[in-house]
Amino acid sequence: MEDLKAARARWLTDRPLYEEFVGHLQDVIKGELRKAGMRARVSGRPKEMDSLLKKFIRKPDKTYDTITDKAGVRVATLFFEEIEQVDNIIMATFDVVNRDDKMHSLGEDKVGYMGIHYDARLQPKEGVPAFAGLLAEIQLRTYCQDLWSEMAHELGYKADMPIPKAAARRLYCLSGLLEVADMEFSQVKEAYNALPDAAEYRVLATLEKYFLVYNPVDYDRKLSLETIRQLLPLYSADDKSRQLLIFEEFCSRNDAKLRLTFEERMQVSEHPLFLTQPEILLIFERLEADSFRLEDEWKKYFPIGDLMELADIWGTPLG
Amino acid sequence: MKLDLSALKINRAILHEIPKHARAEEGSGAVLSDVPSALDAAGAVFFKDRISACLMAKGFEIMFDALSTSPVREAVIAYLAKPTEARFVKMSQDLAKHLYASQDGINPAGILMVIDCSLMTRKVIAILKLEQEEGARVARKMVDQKRSLDVQHLQDLILTQRTRLFKVAAFASRDEASETFDAVCSDMQRGYDERVEVAGFFLKRFLGCKLTEEPEVATKKFYEATEGFINEEVKDPIRRMKYHEHLVSEMGSNKEMVEPVAFANAYFVVEDRKPFTSYLTNRAVSTTAFKRKTELIDKRLEKELFQFESGIDVLVRKDVPKDRIRTEKLASGELKLEIQDYLKSIRGK
């Protein structure tokens, strides 16, 4: 078994570096998610001293150098279907030495924890020299899986006695229930998006994807839907059928300008509130396409001063 | 080409005080700063917003006048060739001295603000003259024993309207060598007419520039392009007539300036406004404000020619009483034009 005294001394020395390493890993993952226009919860920690030492007791075959989760980062997605996309991002971003898909190892006839765990290093081309060779464990799961995992950990590991079989079964039933919840949340989202009169939901989903690239902040979803609903009549039927392309083309053409706009405005505390809303991209796009009709429609529902300010920012002052 | 200044990024700025003085007397000269003023993120956005809003809404396209003796062009080119901080300070001081020398007793005291900016890959120099009310002073301060002016204090003055951003010009380099520029200028106090010396001092005497387009030419181009739009793009005959009537009325009004966007907003239905401004832009007609000078189109404003598909032409003088001609749009889309008058003569043509 690892010499605990020696391990303690080494971890006392190494932990500050791992703390920085975890921070860097989180920044890298957040940056990649932002590039992909995705929202996910990213958290992390270097292992606590006691937890590390206890692991050596529980797993005597592990040594200080072979233990892989001294640094840990967790990524939690809202929806199950986003797991695949984040999985691809992690595989492409890091030097993954081991990938453990718990769902795959569970099989289709069992329920339980379904996250994906990676033992990963920074890729040499992007790595910071000080972090070269350091391993981290990255865990990827949905919010529902995260909830179950946290609860199971709390109940299973912290109980003073072995968990009774009946209670364990109930715990695993809950895992199945949360798996169903994951499926249902995805179905509800799809149903929302498929509603014929829910065009604003589809537009918001599209806008959010691009918006998060420029300004990854929380926004008021109800305000977004309300604004989009009022401004959708500005698009012709033909435009509506290719809205995804319109925003893609607009953001691609104005990428540098959008980056500059958000970067400099968000540093100022008194920034226009719409800059923190995904529909700002629709507003900028319409200002460029036809500011006259936008102004005409806008003033029916919102204060014109807000649009004037945004028009000045975008370089299309209203007449 | 209209400059999109919304992506302007301020790199450094410096302020110099220009005291009021009579031309005849030498005065004490400009009060120069020795270092750029510190500008935080909020300050940079503040000035950028005011410059771009002012120039994009009310800016005139200008160009350096080859016949001018103003040193501004050479100073800007020399600085942009090697844009170090020391050279920036020197260039701005030269501009301040020149502005001081260009002014006389009728020009109020003010502050010259010179700003080094970038517009994506282009280098831009913005020059502002902020005129002050009596008693409004900008706070001086020492930075490493060098003189400077407090920008925050200037922001407060602008916000409280005691100092206003009256005259602004921006020169955006067209090429790597930064020797040719797209330039735009605005005077919030009044429009530009080179023949009016008070307004012209900043543009002509100080900057050494002239308007890219003479007001007479701008007026004619706008008139012709607007007529083109009405006849080519507007299908409804009554709407066409109304638009043309507004155009003639706008040209003959006593307004000093014509603002194409405001014109569209005032007289065109909303769905015609964007096609109209696009039509102007596609024909290289500026959509920014210009001074109304109708000398080149005066004759055309006196009469209105109706031309019909079948070959009928009706020429109507503008002073004909309205009740002599009645118009009606028929269900077929044709226009019924009814003239009621005493026949004076018929001639072969």
Rounded to an integer in angstroms, the radius of gyration calculated over CA atoms of chain B is 25 Å
N-to-C span of chain A? 78 Å
The percentage of residues in β strands of chain B lies in 25-35%
Low-confidence stretches of chain B: 194-198
Q: What is the mean pLDDT of chain B?
A: 85
Give the number of DSSP strands of chain B. 15
Task: Describe the fold and architecture.
The complex is a heterodimer of chains A (319) and B (349). Chain A is an alpha+beta fold and 319 residues long. Chain A has helices at residues 4-35, 49-58, 82-93, 102-106, 143-158, 165-194, 199-214, 221-231, 237-241, 243-253, 255-266, 280-301, 304-314, and strands at 40-46, 71-77, 94-101, 116-122, 136-142. In chain B, helix 6 (215-233) runs antiparallel to helix 7 (237-252) and helix 6 packs across helix 9. The longest helix of chain B has 19 residues, at 215-233. The relative contact order of chain B is 0.12. Residues 194-198 of chain B have low confidence and may be disordered. Chain A binds chain B through residues 256-257, 260-261, 264-265, 267-270, 289-293, 296, 312-319, and chain B through 4-7, 9, 41-42, 44-45, 48-49, 52-53, 56-57, 120, 259, 261-262, 264-265, 270-271, 273-274, 277.
Can you give keywords for this protein?
heterodimer, A: 2 domains, five-stranded mixed sheet, 5 strands, B: 349 residues, alpha+beta, seven-stranded antiparallel sheet, two-stranded antiparallel sheet, 36% helix
